Amino acid sequence: MRHAHTVYEAQPHERRTVMVTSLARQVADAVPAARRADSLVTGYRELLASGSGHRLST
Question: Full-prediction pTM beyond 0.70?
Answer without folding.
Answer: no
